Amino acid sequence: xxxxxxxxxxxxxxxxxxxxxxxxxxxxxxxxxxxxxxxxxxxxxxxxxxxxxxxxxxxxxxxxxxxxxxxxxxxxxxxxxxxxxxxxxxxxxxxxxxxxxxxxxxxxxxxxxxxxxxxxxxxxxxxxxxxxxxxxxxxxxxxxxxxxxxxxxxxxxxxxxxxxxxxxxxxxxxxxxxxxxxxxxxxxxxxxxxxxxxxxxxxxxxxxxxxxxxxxxxxxxxxxxxxxxxxxxxxxxxxxxxxxxxxxxxxxxxxxxxxxxxxxxxxxxxxxxxxxxxxxxxxxxxxxxxxxxxxxxxxxxxxxxxxxxxxxxxxxxxxxxxxxxxxxxxxxxxxxxxxxxxxxxxxxxxxxxxxxxxxxxxxxxxxxxxxxxxxxxxxxxxxxxxxxxxxxxxxxxxxxxxxxxxxxxxxxxxxxxxxxxxxxxxxxxxxxxxxxxxx
Length: 439
Fold this sequence. Notes:
Layout: H1 2-24, E1 41-51, E2 62-67, E3 73-78, E4 84-91, E5 93-100, E6 107-114, E7 120-128, E8 147-149, E9 154-157, H2 169-173, E10 179-181, E11 187-189, E12 196-199, E13 202-203, H3 208-214, E14 220-226, E15 241-246, E16 253-263, E17 267-278, E18 281-306, E19 309-335, E20 340-366, E21 371-396, E22 403-413, E23 416-425, E24 430-438
Parallel strand pairs: 1-7, 12-15
Antiparallel strand pairs: 1-4, 2-3, 2-5, 5-6, 8-9, 9-14, 10-11, 12-13, 14-15, 16-17, 17-18, 18-19, 19-20, 20-21, 21-22, 21-23, 23-24
């Protein structure tokens, strides 16, 4: 009986095993999880990518392989430094190859067939055309910074300071490190007023501050501040050198420039420069005018106590300072040869500075009821004419940076200064002069 049971159990297990094998056997000769044959990965694709115009190789070009049947990416690579690319283990089938690189038009190679007979595909040279529409405009800003720091000097590019272009050289220097400008327009370099002003490398006929207040900013190309000048500048006893480099015109023929400025509190001015250049000769003529008015007011209240008595003083005043400047300049430069040049220039002008201050005083003491009321008036006039003529010669040697310069200059200025001051009492209608100081 036991043998009969074992026989039927063995037959049952064998039937289950045979059914499982039958279900896993491929049908109709097909293989694979989806009932299809597994395609062999025997294909290889290679090529070399170059520029269609210059024939230069293109590195890091993207190469993508798409299936022709479902348009999906099945592989990809990038080109090497020599422009070559290589793809392998590609299954049998039909493909499209897309090649793309920034700045170039995409290129598609269609109908690539991989089979047992043709599985090594060499596309040789593949040329990409530049995409001329990829960039419409390229702007390169090569302008100089507002302030350049060089080994022996600071250079202020005046053209970068649009806020001060309508003023004078003093307005440009107000925002420069190591330079301070007070309320009256006086300049100090590293805390000292003992500096030298040069105009195009030549000494100015005017005082340092007068020269800076006279030169319009619109005629300045840049300003060099030399705090540690070399021996060629004869720097003994000076805190440094401020060298004003004026604009030069190198255009052939007749050219010119004009500027005008206007501001609040009676400030206006203008300048022009006409230049004629023909071959080796350059002739120029210019003029400038500037008027600057600086109004102000002041108030002071003071008291002093001595014992039981208190002395009071109240001052209320108004002031106005005015600076007026005009000048003409002309010159000629001539190139004797490629290495030799001579030049002659002259300048004539006038500057005037006026100051008017009127202060009302009220003085009294406590106890007491008597007030001493009076007005103090101060008037200052300073100015005069000036002129300067100079001639120069320069020779450049063959070695770059080696040159010799000679210059002759004659200048004169006529400075007059007068200060007047007086007190007046509006009730007594009398005026008492405190004297005048002409110089």
